[in-house]
């Protein structure tokens, strides 16, 4: 395909969740309007569009789980439900004029770096385009993970993942098997328990669950936040500060989490009187090793007579009979997988081909690695939002996203200063140095020492998802781009023409032009 046959943009943003929409807003604020947001679905919203299961809500307070540049004084509850967060993202899209940039139903099939032209060739389900810069904001919670259970294909009933909820299927009176005990499952179980005939929870590892102190935000509070915006800012600041103070216990002194464990056990003991069930639900690892879950209805639901907890994972399906690892057999009409997502093996990585002709997945075969959670060696003019080691165990990911948007903004400024056709590619030495520091800090954290196996760890047991520090530290580390950490080149097509009669640049006297020119 020739250059004239397809569209070219300055920036292509992949995904329209918090990361993608935030990137779009920041680009416009930087004066960059030549960009598109490529979204594979038919609406914006990311994980808050996809996860519409009963009871879906956020476990971070509403006023902290929103952009600082787009405060919402009208959050209806202290912990917002999925429908309110999705509506907020639609509101952000409209308020900041993003609709003209968003391309819905444009799934990215492949992205390839063209070294000759110094741009990305992007193939989508609706055609092709090219871009100088790619900002990948697909997010780690976008592609559901369903285990390969022997016999599952022969199950005669209904099967779906929590992130692909079938709203046309009525669970009333059905025998339901819930697979998994993560953040989705503890919301689904109490939401569906009253209507189903029977609910069997297959639990490989019990989670630590703290009470969810949720309440309606009064009309007076909302009026105050509308009339005096600084009160909403102060509320957000207080929520942020409390969580910053908690970080030390997770990252440096996990032993201090013992008190939190006692509070979590009290939460369970209050609702669960059966000692046998209590034993099944009591974790054997340090709290915080897996994400601490919030619910005041999960344990009461498990104590109901139509609920059974199988303290073992699902290993086989024989017709309508589900067999657990401990041999327990259960009859079911419906199987719901709450088994998480492809986090350390994101499918988008298979669709990104870098300067060396290898995919990002191949480059990350020994574990995800990036510079400051944003850029990867061998992938020029490419950035990711919510990249490796940017996740949090106790606070709002929006804080991390906004820090990465700062980095993205300075990245674009540096390219502008360097001139048209300039390319930034993270130096392998800088990427490795950054990750060595991160992994060294990770050794002391509860996520590595707490005695659990979590989705934070990759196949080799390395924690490539969590940030081992405060959000303040991360914001400082991503405030600006250090050009010493990058190889800076310029495309040959953008070199100034030599004066007539001037000697040809070295290496071009024989007519063989080089692709790029190092400028730093």
TrEMBL record:
<dbReference type="InterPro" id="IPR036188">
    <property type="entry name" value="FAD/NAD-bd_sf"/>
</dbReference>
<protein>
    <submittedName>
        <fullName>NAD(P)/FAD-dependent oxidoreductase</fullName>
    </submittedName>
</protein>
<keyword id="KW-0274">FAD</keyword>
<keyword id="KW-0560">Oxidoreductase</keyword>
<comment type="similarity">
    <text>Belongs to the FAD-binding monooxygenase family.</text>
</comment>
<dbReference type="Pfam" id="PF00743">
    <property type="entry name" value="FMO-like"/>
</dbReference>
<feature type="compositionally biased region" description="Low complexity">
    <location>
        <begin position="499"/>
        <end position="508"/>
    </location>
</feature>
<feature type="region of interest" description="Disordered">
    <location>
        <begin position="499"/>
        <end position="520"/>
    </location>
</feature>
<dbReference type="InterPro" id="IPR020946">
    <property type="entry name" value="Flavin_mOase-like"/>
</dbReference>
<keyword id="KW-0285">Flavoprotein</keyword>
<feature type="compositionally biased region" description="Basic and acidic residues">
    <location>
        <begin position="511"/>
        <end position="520"/>
    </location>
</feature>
<dbReference type="InterPro" id="IPR051209">
    <property type="entry name" value="FAD-bind_Monooxygenase_sf"/>
</dbReference>
């Amino acid at each position: 395909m020739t250059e004239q046959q397809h569209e070219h943009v300055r920036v292509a943003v992949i995904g329209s969740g918090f990361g993608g929409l935030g990137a779009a807003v920041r680009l416009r604020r930087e004066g960059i309007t030549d960009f598109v947001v490529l979204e594979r679905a038919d609406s914006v919203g990311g994980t808050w569009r996809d996860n519409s299961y009963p009871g879906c809500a956020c476990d971070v307070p509403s006023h902290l789980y929103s952009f600082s540049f787009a405060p919402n004084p009208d959050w209806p509850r202290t912990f917002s439900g999925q429908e309110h967060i999705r509506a907020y993202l639609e509101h952000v899209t409209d308020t900041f004029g993003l609709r003209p940039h968003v391309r819905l139903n444009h799934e990215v099939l492949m992205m390839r770096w063209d070294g000759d032209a110094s741009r990305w060739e992007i193939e989508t389900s609706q055609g092709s385009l090219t871009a100088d810069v790619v900002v990948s904001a697909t997010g780690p919670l976008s592609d559901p993970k369903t285990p390969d259970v022997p016999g599952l294909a022969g199950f005669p009933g209904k099967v779906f993942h929590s992130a692909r909820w079938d709203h046309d299927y009525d669970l009333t009176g059905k025998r339901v098997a819930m697979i998994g005990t993560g953040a989705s499952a503890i919301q689904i179980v109490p939401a569906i328990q009253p209507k189903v005939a029977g609910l069997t929870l297959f639990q490989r590892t019990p989670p630590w669950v703290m009470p969810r102190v949720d309440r309606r935000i009064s009309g007076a509070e909302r009026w105050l936040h509308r009339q005096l915006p600084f009160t909403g800012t102060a509320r957000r600041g207080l929520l942020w500060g409390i969580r910053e103070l908690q970080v030390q216990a997770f990252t440096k002194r996990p032993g201090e989490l013992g008190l939190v464990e006692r509070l979590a056990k009290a939460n369970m003991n209050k609702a669960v009187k059966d000692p046998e069930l209590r034993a099944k639900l009591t974790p054997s690892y340090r709290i915080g090793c897996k994400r601490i879950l919030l619910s005041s209805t999960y344990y009461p639901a498990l104590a109901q007579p139509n609920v059974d907890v199988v303290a073992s994972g699902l290993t086989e399906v024989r017709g309508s009979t589900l067999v657990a690892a401990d041999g327990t057999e259960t009859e079911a009409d419906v199987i719901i997988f709450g088994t998480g997502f492809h986090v350390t093996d994101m499918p988008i990585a298979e669709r990104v081909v870098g300067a060396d002709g290898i995919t990002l997945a191949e480059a990350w075969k020994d574990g995800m690695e990036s510079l400051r959670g944003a850029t990867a060696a061998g992938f020029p003019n490419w950035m990711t939002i919510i990249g490796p080691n940017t996740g949090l165990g106790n606070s709002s990911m929006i804080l991390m996203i906004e820090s990465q948007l700062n980095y993205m903004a300075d990245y674009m400024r540096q390219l502008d200063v360097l001139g048209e056709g300039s390319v930034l590619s993270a130096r392998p030495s800088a990427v490795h140095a950054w990750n060595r520091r991160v992994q060294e800090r990770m050794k002391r954290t509860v996520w590595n020492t707490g005695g659990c196996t979590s989705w934070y760890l990759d196949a080799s047991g390395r924690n490539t998802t969590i940030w081992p520090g405060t959000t303040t530290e991360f914001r400082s580390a991503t405030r600006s781009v250090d050009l010493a950490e990058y190889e800076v080149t310029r495309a040959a097509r953008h070199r100034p023409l030599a004066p007539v009669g001037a000697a040809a640049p070295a290496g071009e006297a024989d007519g063989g032009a080089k692709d790029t020119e190092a400028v730093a």
